[in-house]
Amino acid sequence: MAKTAVSMTVNGRAVEALAEPRTLLIHFLRDQLGITGPHVGCETSHCGACTVDIDGKSVKSCTLFAVQAQGAEVLTVEGMAGADGTLSVIQEGFMQEHGLQCGYCTPGMITRAYRLLQETPNPSEEQIRWGLSGNLCRCTGYQNIVKAVRYAAEKLQAQKEAAE
Amino acid sequence: MITGAFDYHRPRSVDDAIALLSQHGDEGRVIAGGHSLVPMMKLRLAAPSHLIDLAALDELKGIAVADQAIVIGAMTTQHEIIADQALAARCPILRETAALIADPQVRYCGTLGGNVANGDPGNDMPAVMQCLGASYRLRGPNGERSVAARDFYEAAYFTARADDEILTAVEIPTPAAGHGAAYEKQKRKVGDYATAAAAVMLTLAGGTCETASVALTNVGETPLFVEAAGQALAGSGLDDAAVTAAVEAARAAAEPVSDLRGPADYRRHLAGVMVRRAVERARRRAAA
Amino acid sequence: MTDVKEMTLEEREATLGGIGTARKRKEDARFIQGKGNYVDDIKLPDTVVGNFVRSPHAHARIKSINTEPATRIPGVIAVLTADDLRPLNLHWMPTLAGDAQAVLADEKVHFQNQEVAFVIGEDRYAVADGIEAVEVEYEDLPALVDPTKALLPDAPVLREDAQDKSEVGQGARRHPNHIFTWDCGDKDATDQAFAGAAVTVKEEIFYPRCHPCPLEPCGCVASMDKVRGELTLYGTFQAPHVIRTVVSLISGLAEHNIRVVSPDVGGGFGNKVGAYPGYVCATVGSIVLGRPVKWIESRIDNLSTTAFARDYLMTGELAADPDGRITALRCHVLADHGAFNSHAQPSKWPAGFFNIVTGSYDIPVAHCSVDGVFTNKAPGGVAYRCSFRVTEAAYLIERMIDVLAQKLDIDKAEIRRRNFVKASQFPYRSCLGWEYDSGDYETALDKALAAVDYEGLRREQAEKRARGELMGIGIATFTEIVGAGPTRNCDILGIGMFDSCEIRVHPTGSAIARLGTKSQGQGHETTYAQIIATEIGIPSDDITIEEGDTDTAPYGLGTYGSRSTPVAAAAAAQAARKIRAKAKKIAAHMLEVGEDDLEWEIDRFKVRGLPEKAASMKEIAMAAYQSLPEGLEQGLEAVNYYDPPNFTYPFGAYVCVVDVDPHTGEVKIRRFYALDDCGTRINPMVIDGQVHGGLAEAFGIAMGQELVFDEIGNIQGASLMDYFLPTAVETPHWETDFTVTPSPHHPIGAKGVGESPNVGGVPAFSNAVVDAFAHLGVTHMTMPHTHWRVWKQCEALGIGG
């Protein structure tokens, strides 16, 4: 099948690569662009390891063709830290609260938590659990992931209050 | 898990999309959110040669809430349905149901149109639409028509939609102020289809149930509108006998298969439990 | 030399970040930034991709394979079948259990999704199309799905290749579908005890086939450098050295020409112990093509072909006196091993350490026997987050003691107390042959019961029962046996199950340590460094831990069965002690005193009585490369191969509280309290994380995980749509607690913890569910406790609504 040029913005950088129409976004990112933070865990859109942020939405990139993201603004875990390498508060929270073990689900978790906190800046434990329910983790039993997101939420709140 | 090869089309108008569908016949499929279709394609249970992406069709998006009717564009996502305050105020069962579909990521992509048009008996919105008396707008080469949700579903994955038609919008008669509705869904975990689910809408006047409708998800080849269940409730005081009659009607209507969610007898039983619980919650929500 | 006033003792201790500190994890920095390096992230130049044509049938004869249409697909490079591997003698491979497994189906397929052909192409898309195009003609054969029918005279013979073999690895066979019988204990004395018992109970307990299902599936990249004659194999290996030896043995490549690398591994839980056809085919492909070949399995492949766990049909019996003191235990297990005997156990243990089945209880006599059989299902039988078959054993005894309690109407906590091995009995010799190193079960149970207000819970339960409501309280007071193991009785392929650590201290006082294990998320890079820090006084932040590269790490047997802490961490401590011993010599030289005049203090040697005279480890490190006493070699390095004198026996006391909805069968986990005693606690933060994770996996197993087959051997629900991996919503909140009973034989007293929560968690959930029905006469309910199964119980009792 003929390949076409697919272009999008990934982590603030304009990218273009050739892809078949059937090329999944996850493979486009990983195999063609070398962005290997998002992972493939299930291929049936259940595990969320492939989660990326597309135009302000959390999306499972194993269930989207790259061509569908033509022109989109894509954010992956690689784009979470500041330009100077400063960790985002969510990344910091995962480290401080031991919110990861094998690390395989972590990029998807962090990317999803980012969007969750954009929409719900001060989530309850229940809201976090529901908000992350499209991301499976086999290692942590989720408890410390919930704490990590709370850590980030509190820190973001504090930063916001300090700025006001 | 890789799909077969296909040509990708991203039409700019519904007419263009219909033209593509007509042109490619059996070989063409429209894709909306894709979360039902793409996994099927990966398993090569679906192998369209032409994929027609409706994502660019702004005319299929949006929620319009009016006193007479609510019109929701087919490409409106579950996430947008959950977020819409006006919709939640007039027809809260849609938010409740959308929130029980799949998981957050899938709801950003999954559309109402895809959910009701695809014909998967596991989808949640069809039964809710039957319960609400909604109708679907279908547009094809010969123009637009409307089909009631209660008449739309023929068998698993078979619907009244013709191959060259696109479901453009869902029209819901705006539920009466003070109505009560509920969607009860039992599932194994977040992300799962219902083991059994029930949608109930009713109105009360002076403690008597004036109108009632009941529909079931995933306990048959299609969503099931259980007219007899609504009739059992309407005119009653929603006393135990009436509710039990509705439950019995639902159980009688259910034709579940045995699967990993449970054997058929359990799922039939559960359909009844879901109806009972949905009636109870709908009653509490309704203005007496 | 050092200004000892610069920091207080406490500050120096804190700087060390040693044993007992909740040190943040060193590995996190890369994972939270998407910079982990998992096998599918490896991108060698010129890499091609391979994947399998798989059988749609569970049992069939292959009549023909036509690969030609596939080779016409653009991008497809080659298609391998058994016929291509036969000249290399690689169409079958030896299993760890002494059987042989088809790499590519040879004449017959024995389970659904079995590997039939291997398609190699430029990318995964071309390969997928190639797989679709391969034409295989099958002749269907009757499938054997039910293990209870495997040994019937008229059962279909599955393994024609092994039909005439008297053994397929682990003992004599009595039927073509029989693999082995393993027997343990004193049968006559046990039978006698049962004959004369005041009370006996018997229950059939099925531990269903489930799957470890790590989030990252299995995979590898094989890269043959034809010029150098060297093979590098990157892969998801829990035991990279063992893989290297296996590859050498089956490929004929000299072991020094093979480098096996386990990069970051996205969870293992036992799934990544074995050697799979994908590894062999990728290796052959690379040898043939001279290009790197990558094989990554899909989730469906993972759940349906690589290393399931459990599938034990157990019959348990207890004999007791009228007060509930157990006088004997008897059990039989029918073990479904699938199509090939390729479970992963130490060679001499065909049923793993199932004879830990007497658990935490002082049972005078016992007998158990295990029969392994073939069925038309995927091969395997790994220890899914547990030591070998320990979880099955713990499940049996923890369920049976509840059954006995109900029979005698004795409280389920009290009956445990009456039967516990007492603290004063350690080291305790069990009647089935183990020597438990240490324990204090009663203290643990008492603490657990107090923490949850057990009496209050029982009162509440009584009130609820009076109202017709279902509430259950489950207790599990389990004992694990981990840390395989003493080389005298544990080996894989004849290699004793020691483990190893090599430490090099650099001149400026930092260090690198390499070990024979491989973390899959357990946090070794963090915790091993803490042990070494405490032992040699170099801050853990200054110690790099490396694992997984067989070219650099010393030989070890890998990470599974909670063996990293009991074995490799012991090696780390011992190697560190060798370094400290040498450092002492250097310090004595530096301080111009005798070694006997020195004493160790956190990070330095001090001259006894002269506190201002000291040499810090940092200074000693430099001296080791500069000014040595006569007769000492340069450098500050040590290696230790540790052969543990015994296993370790972690234990715990768990309490689970559930409410059951009789109308829907839903079980709500209201509370879960887990007290673990893993001996010395290296990093409490990591321990808590391990316990949370193990409990979540136990929750999944108890409440939903099951690989189901239909009557013709089709696997059902082998994707994450159906296979129950709970989300954050279903997963309960965990309360953790601990006691500390160090292991007397382990250098730092540690026992290992990662698997306890799975071993103890599953019976705690089950016991809670059954307890909810105990007053209605229910003694056992088969796992997993899905909504429909629980409702079926309610319906049978007439309370299902």
Descriptive keywords:
heterotrimer, A: 164 residues, alpha+beta, Ubiquitin-like (UB roll), DNA polymerase, domain 1, 2 domains, five-stranded mixed sheet, 5 helices, 5 strands, globular, B: 288 residues, Uridine Diphospho-n-acetylenolpyruvylglucosamine Reductase, domain 2, Uridine Diphospho-n-acetylenolpyruvylglucosamine Reductase, domain 3, Enolase-like, domain 1, 3 domains, five-stranded antiparallel sheet, four-stranded antiparallel sheet, 12 helices
Describe the structure.
The complex is a heterotrimer of chains A (164), B (288) and C (801). With 164 residues, chain A is of the alpha+beta class. Chain A has helices spanning 25-32, 89-96, 106-119, 125-131, 143-163; strands at 4-10, 13-19, 51-54, 57-60, 73-75. In chain A, α2 (89-96) crosses α5 (143-163). Chain B folds into 3 domains: 7-53, 2-Layer Sandwich (Uridine Diphospho-n-acetylenolpyruvylglucosamine Reductase, domain 2), CATH 3.30.43.10; 58-173, Uridine Diphospho-n-acetylenolpyruvylglucosamine Reductase, domain 3, CATH 3.30.465.10; 180-283, CO dehydrogenase flavoprotein, C-terminal domain (Enolase-like, domain 1), CATH 3.30.390. Chain B has 12 helices and 14 strands. Chain B has a 5-stranded antiparallel beta sheet with strand order 4-5-10-6-7, with helices on both faces. In chain B, strands 11-12-13-14 form a 4-stranded antiparallel beta sheet, with helices on both faces. Chain B has a 3-stranded parallel beta sheet with strand order 1-3-2, covered by helices on one side. In chain B, a hairpin with a 6-residue loop joins β13 and β14 (224-225). Chain B is globular. Chain B starts with 6 loop residues before the first strand and ends with a helix. Chain C is an alpha+beta fold and 801 residues long. Chain C has 3 domains: 9-36 and 499-642, 2-Layer Sandwich (Aldehyde Oxidoreductase, domain 4), CATH 3.30.365; 39-141 and 217-265 and 273-305, Aldehyde Oxidoreductase, domain 3 (Alpha-Beta Complex), CATH 3.90.1170; 308-484 and 647-796, 2-Layer Sandwich (Aldehyde Oxidoreductase, domain 4). Helix content of chain C is 27%, strand content 25%. Chain C contains 19 helices and 35 strands. Chain C is globular, with a radius of gyration of 28 Å. At the A-C interface, α1, α2, α3, α4 and α5 of A face α2 and α17 of C.
